[in-house]
Write a structure and sequence with these properties.
Layout: E1 8-10, E2 14-16, H1 26-35, E3 39-41, E4 44-49, E5 57-59, H2 71-75, E6 78-81, E7 88-89, E8 93-99, H3 107-112, E9 113-125, E10 130-136, E11 151-157, E12 164-172, H4 174-180, E13 187-197, E14 202-203, E15 205-212
Parallel strand pairs: 1-12, 2-12, 5-11, 6-8
Antiparallel strand pairs: 3-4, 4-5, 7-14, 8-13, 9-12, 9-15, 10-11, 10-13
């Protein structure tokens, strides 16, 4: 009896930080390190590219921005989940309160460590394009545009072969929290917005980390 199995591989985690920073953070350093070491996965080569805070791309064939054909349909369903409910499917707009281990850090502490929003265990079959946006402390019923402070970034994955992908997204949010006046908050609301999703996506966990400069 033959079985149709989907191969599984892990991709490099995706990292980027905000523009116009005086600090060259470890988030930027990790992204550069990934850029210098593409992974050869069978007959497929996967590259991680680093852009500004508005676009993150993982995939083949150069830069592409994938827009959902019907934005209203993609965002009409919304739900609030708890961290204990992860892993969870990204089948609608989901929001979750994420605790911050540290708050009201000094200028020196911020220069030494970048506060990073880590979205880990992102899993999907890679034969279809994938895009989702990440917002912080935003209104699910009136989501901000990409040029607003509440918009943290996007993950875009180009279609490859029918393999199951597991990857991560790491977003620097030190400046974002300052812009929002949320530096003293004990938690932040993180909202994931599916923009182009044709295959089931699972999100493993979301947390706050600190990357040393």
């Amino acid at each position: 009896m033959s079985m149709n199995l989907i191969p599984h591989y892990s991709t490099p985690s995706i990292c980027y930080s905000f523009p116009n920073r005086t600090l060259v953070s470890s988030v930027q350093n990790r992204a550069r390190a990934t850029l210098n070491s593409d992974q050869n996965l069978g007959n497929h080569q996967v590259s991680v590219l680093k852009f500004d805070r508005r676009n993150v791309l993982l995939g083949l064939g150069g830069l592409i921005l994938v827009n959902h054909p019907n934005l209203a349909r993609a965002t009409e369903s919304k739900k609030l989940v708890r961290l204990t409910e992860f892993p969870t499917a990204l089948d609608s707009v989901i929001s979750v309160m994420v605790p911050r281990p540290r708050r009201s850090r000094s200028k020196k502490e911020k220069e030494e460590e970048e506060e990073v929003l880590s979205i880990e265990g992102i899993e999907f079959v890679a034969d279809k394009a994938v895009k989702f946006d990440v917002h912080v402390n935003d209104d699910e019923d009136d989501l901000s545009r990409p040029d607003a402070s509440e918009f943290a970034g996007s993950l875009v994955f180009l279609p490859q072969s029918r393999k199951r992908v597991r990857t991560s997204l790491h977003l620097g949010i030190t400046d974002l929290l300052e812009d929002l006046g949320a530096d003293g908050d004990s938690s932040i609301k993180v909202t994931l917005v599916p923009r182009y999703v044709q295959r089931p996506i699972t999100i493993g966990r979301i947390k706050i980390e600190y990357f040393s400069a």
